[in-house]
């Protein structure tokens, strides 16, 4: 065993097991982001980049309340989540829906408008509250060691909540009338409209649920690391990647597993690469995934276009010039 | 000096925005990796110049080549991806390239390459004022290249890809190679912009090329107007000059100004999208049009065109278009043998065989779901078939892609017309004209004069077809603004312009009012009289009866009867199948 470890360039299996545990913990956060983004994209088809802004606002408001008033962490966190939900629903209602109305192809306008929201939002935060890094404290932190592998009470809570959210969302989608309506809209929007589902209301609800889920990830991000005006940008990328690799219309369980897998792979790669290049692993894998699935077909089409056509049997081409 | 610096930056970002506009505005490919391609050019030329003493000019050229090459490679997986996946793909490219340039020690890591020589054009470019003239010239050149490509037949096909890729292919145009080429060209121009950024700032650092920069460039293009190159320059000016505006005019502190600039810009983007979705400058807005409109009153007394061409003129026109080739003994121009197609477990088309006779109108009728449109899809290669063969004038065209079938003389129309809504009628029809000079990039680059000389021919052919269907007055109207009935006529003009000898018309007379139906029938029968081979799928049996020489009756994926309409209506069973139980 040690021989294999040496061969692979790893000091010990403690490192590997630590990397896997840390990977699962990070992956739990990616799973939440992936579930959130897949729900939005799968049901509403909105490329909701502005999730980066609501993510930041959730942690920011909670941190401001905890640091500025005597209110304890839990109610502050709830207020933060509620505020971010209000913002997200407002964005869907006042920006995305008017943009998409009467348009068959609304991907680009919605995408660009949400970029506008992210840019404006981040700088609004900086203008109002400054560039400082803030902390979101108040969580009772303990460190546990099991066989030399370390993790904290915060990590356990995150993983447990992720499992709980994944299960409850699955139940919501599979077992309730609301879930049935959401799946109907996801499957066929026009048909859902025709049988009397209020599609706009479903969209707003989906934004609320998805923002709640991403908000939980934001709170843990803030508690574990720090609260900054641009804290949402990087996590949203991971949300995209997880959702697209898992498939945006797939079940939350599958999306969550892909999230955890990406977290573990990313963490394992740091055994060989430096921390700063871990993004390379994730996006490199994504690039490979997209390339493997679509480049062969693309090249086939292209070589078909490039292959020389026999110039026969086309008298139609010669006519009409005289 | 300060404002010259701002202007220089506007020009550099204008170059980047115009390159993205060609990709995003014309071809409809949403890339968020412009800054990454700029980084390729900037870092390569910067590295060669600072570490190897390479001549800066040649370094920039190498950077452009490297950018183009990598752009073409990236386009390969992008060819078949839908827009959201293209965003994701380019996002990953952006991230990967940035991580690479940040972590490679030879490129200076986080700090970047600092000891860069200055660029030399007749003299060393050091101060912003030294840069101004070269940058103006370069921007003009890039504008010229982008406009030349964008307004050429090549550019028209790019816009066709954006509007409706399948419809573009159905008119005999290859789209795959065009996509690769446009990715290559625009990435090359972005690499040029990147070199300019690096030498202008005297540094190549990751911060100059991060994701936010790509986003800003996307925003410039959308803000200024997709498909309008001047709009991109305007967008670059607004985004770049907003910071200095807040700093110098509104007198905010530099730090506050940069925040306020981005805040204002983000809000402006949302407001513009909501109120003016096409961007500040409309795609079809050109300064020349304004000039022309100002001049027009001088010759407003022009005689209105005669109402409708008389029958003889009409026939004569068709004759000149197609050459009269009336034959008594019709032979099978298209032969379909044992063609089958299943969707899942459903056999939509089940061992179908029939012929289309040359110079005749063949009708294909049957109840809903009989598989009529699927037959068109299989004949033209819109869908791959499971079994059977299709012969066109004796040539086996089974399994050919749709554009190749079209180039060999068989084109189809679509039930839902599928015009290019944001193109004018004239451009819709021009798209279909075969063998245009300037559909290939090599034509545009190496024989521009031929492209230039060929343009009037395309225009003439397209106008003639529009006149033929009676819509020449509306040549400049956008297709999307037309009522449905007229759209059907444009669709007909469009496939006529393709000079195909076999026309497959899917519901040419449905959904249009009676006056247009007569006109449609008139046009189609005239086309037949002058030698074209036509097959129509149509629900309105009277329309079929008035036109078709021979009718096939389809039910459940098979042909169950054929003959004249008289033969078919005498069969009580068929009438029952078609109209249901009385």
Percent helix of chain B: 55-70%
Shape type of chain A: globular
Structural class of chain A: mainly alpha
DSSP, total strands of chain B: 12
Round the Cα radius of gyration of chain A to an integer and report it: 23 Å
Put simply, the count of helices of chain B is: 22
Tertiary shape of chain B: elongated
The CATH topology label of chain A is ABC transporter involved in vitamin B12 uptake, BtuC
Spatial arrangement of strands, main beta sheet of chain A: 1-2
Distance N terminus to C terminus of chain B? 87 Å
Distance N terminus to C terminus of chain A?
82 Å
What share of residues of chain A is helical? over 70%
CATH top-level class of chain A: Mainly Alpha
Rg of chain B (C-alpha, Å) = 28 Å
> Main β-sheet of chain A, in a few words?
2 strands, antiparallel
How would you characterize this protein structure?
- The complex is a heterodimer of chains A (322) and B (582).
- Chain A has a two-stranded antiparallel ribbon with strand order 1-2.
- Chain A has one domain (27-285): ABC transporter involved in vitamin B12 uptake, BtuC (Orthogonal Bundle).
- Chain A has helices spanning 2-8, 13-44, 51-68, 73-100, 107-129, 153-175, 177-187, 189-194, 199-224, 233-246, 252-269, 278-306, 315-318; strands at 143-146, 149-152.
- Chain A is an all-alpha fold.
- Chain B is built from 22 helices and twelve strands.
- In chain B, the strands form three sheets. In chain B, strands 8-9-10-5-11-12 form a six-stranded mixed beta sheet, with helices on both faces.
- The longest helix of chain B has 26 residues, at 176-201.
- Classes of the chains: A mainly alpha (322), B alpha/beta (582).
- The interface between A and B is large, with 60 and 70 residues.
């Amino acid at each position: 065993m040690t021989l294999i470890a040496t061969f692979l360039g790893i000091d010990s299996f403690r490192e590997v097991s630590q990397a896997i545990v840390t990977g699962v913990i990070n992956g739990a956060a990616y799973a939440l982001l992936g579930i959130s983004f897949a729900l939005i994209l799968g049901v509403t088809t909105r490329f909701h980049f502005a999730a980066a802004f609501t993510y930041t606002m959730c942690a920011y408001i909670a941190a401001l309340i905890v640091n500025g008033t005597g209110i304890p962490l839990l109610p502050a966190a709830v207020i933060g989540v509620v505020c971010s939900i209000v913002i997200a629903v407002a964005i869907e209602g006042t920006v995305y829906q008017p943009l998409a109305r009467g348009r068959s192809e609304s991907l680009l306008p919605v995408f660009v408008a949400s970029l506008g929201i992210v840019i404006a939002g981040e700088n609004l935060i900086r203008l109002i509250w400054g560039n400082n890094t803030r902390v979101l404290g108040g969580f009772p932190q303990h460190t546990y060691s099991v066989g030399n592998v370390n993790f904290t009470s915060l990590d356990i809570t995150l993983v447990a909540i992720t499992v709980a959210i994944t299960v409850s969302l699955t139940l919501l989608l599979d077992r309730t009338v609301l879930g049935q309506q959401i799946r109907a809209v996801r499957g066929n929007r026009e048909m859902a409209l025709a049988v009397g589902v209020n599609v706009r209301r479903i969209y707003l609800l989906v934004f609320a649920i998805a923002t709640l889920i991403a908000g939980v990830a934001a709170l843990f991000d803030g508690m574990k690391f720090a609260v900054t005006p641009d804290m949402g940008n990087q996590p949203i990328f991971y949300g995209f990647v997880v959702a697209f690799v898992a498939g945006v219309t797939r079940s939350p369980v599958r999306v969550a597993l892909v999230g955890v897998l990406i977290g573990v792979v990313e963490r394992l790669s740091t055994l060989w690469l430096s921390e700063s290049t871990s993004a390379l692993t994730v996006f490199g894998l994504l690039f490979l995934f997209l390339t493997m699935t679509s480049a062969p077909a693309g090249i086939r089409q292209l070589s078909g276009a490039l292959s020389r056509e026999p110039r026969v049997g086309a008298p139609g081409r010669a006519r009409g010039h005289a | 000096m300060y404002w010259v610096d701002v202007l220089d930056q506007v020009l550099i970002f204008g170059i980047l925005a115009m390159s993205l506009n060609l990709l995003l505005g014309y071809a409809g490919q949403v890339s968020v990796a412009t800054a990454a391609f700029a980084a390729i050019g900037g870092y390569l030329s910067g590295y060669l110049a600072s570490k190897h003493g390479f001549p800066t000019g040649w370094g920039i050229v190498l950077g452009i080549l490297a950018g183009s090459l990598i752009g073409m490679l990236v386009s390969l997986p992008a060819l078949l991806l839908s827009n959201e996946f293209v965003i994701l793909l380019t996002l990953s490219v952006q991230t990967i390239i940035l991580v690479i340039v940040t972590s490679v020690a030879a490129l200076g890591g986080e700090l970047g390459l600092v000891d860069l020589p200055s660029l030399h054009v007749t003299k060393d470019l050091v101060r912003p004022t030294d840069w101004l003239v070269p940058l103006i010239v370069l921007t003009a050149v890039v504008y010229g290249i982008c406009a030349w490509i964008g307004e050429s037949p090549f550019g028209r096909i790019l816009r066709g890809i954006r509007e409706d890729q399948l419809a573009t292919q159905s008119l005999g145009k290859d789209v795959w190679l065009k996509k690769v080429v446009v990715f290559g060209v625009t990435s090359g121009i972005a690499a040029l912009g990147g070199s300019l950024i690096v030498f202008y700032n005297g540094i190549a650092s990751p911060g100059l090329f991060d994701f936010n920069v790509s986003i800003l460039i996307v925003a410039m293009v959308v803000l200024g107007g997709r498909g309008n190159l001047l709009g991109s320059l305007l967008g670059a000016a607004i985004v770049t000059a907003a910071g200095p505006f807040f700093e110098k005019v509104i007198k905010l502190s530099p730090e506050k100004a940069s925040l306020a600039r981005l805040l204002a810009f983000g809000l402006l983007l949302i407001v513009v999208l909501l109120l003016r979705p096409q961007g500040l400058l409309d795609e079809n807005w050109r300064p020349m049009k304004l000039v022309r409109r100002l001049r027009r009153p001088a010759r407003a007394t022009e005689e209105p065109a005669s109402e409708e061409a008389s029958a003889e003129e009409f026939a004569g026109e068709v004759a000149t278009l197609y050459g009269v080739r009336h034959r008594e003994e019709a032979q099978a121009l298209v032969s379909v043998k044992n063609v089958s197609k299943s969707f899942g477990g459903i056999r939509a088309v089940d061992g179908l065989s029939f012929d289309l006779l040359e110079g005749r109108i063949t009708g294909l009728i049957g109840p809903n779901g009989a598989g009529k449109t699927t037959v068109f899809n299989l004949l033209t290669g819109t869908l791959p078939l499971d079994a059977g063969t299709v012969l066109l004038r004796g040539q086996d065209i089974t399994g050919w892609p749709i554009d190749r079938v079209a180039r060999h003389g068989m084109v189809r129309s679509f039930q839902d017309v599928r015009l290019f809504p944001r193109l004018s009628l004239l451009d819709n029809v021009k798209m279909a004209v075969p063998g245009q000079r300037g559909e290939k990039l090599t034509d545009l680059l190496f024989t521009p004069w031929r492209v230039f000389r060929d343009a009037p021919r395309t225009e003439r052919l397209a106008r003639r077809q529009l006149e033929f269907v009676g819509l020449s007055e509306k040549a400049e109207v956008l297709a999307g603004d037309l009522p449905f009935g007229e759209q059907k006529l444009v669709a007909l003009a469009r496939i006529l312009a393709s000079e195909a000898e076999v026309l497959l018309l899917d519901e040419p007379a449905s959904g249009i009012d009676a006056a247009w139906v007569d006109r449609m029938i008139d046009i189609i029968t005239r086309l037949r009289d002058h030698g074209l081979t036509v097959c129509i799928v149509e629900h309105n049996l009277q329309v079929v009866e008035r036109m078709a020489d021979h009718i096939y009756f389809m039910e459940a994926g098979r042909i169950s009867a054929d003959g004249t309409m008289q033969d078919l209506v005498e069969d009580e069973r068929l009438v029952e199948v078609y109209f249901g139980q009385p």
